[in-house]
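User: Working on a comparison across species. This one is YjiS-like domain-containing protein from Planktotalea frisia. Can you predict its structure so I can line it up against the others?
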Amino acid sequence: MAFLTDTFSVQGTMGDKLVAFWSNFREARTKRAVYRQTINELAGLSNRELADLGIHRSAIRRIAYESAYTK
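Assistant: Here's the predicted structure for YjiS-like domain-containing protein from Planktotalea frisia:
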């Protein structure tokens, strides 16, 4: 039995790599901003307001992470 693996690498230009880097950087920065904004808004609520939403204070970071990074 024989197996054939065909792989190739596309060599992009330096400009393509730079554009991809900046695109990834902007996307990461945007996600981080959503994460920080969610944390700040939820942390600003009182314990009673969080309880009304069904959120425990210890879950704020998890909720912020899910809202920013898992879409």
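For your comparison, note: Residues 14-43 form the longest helix (30 residues).

User: Helpful, thanks.
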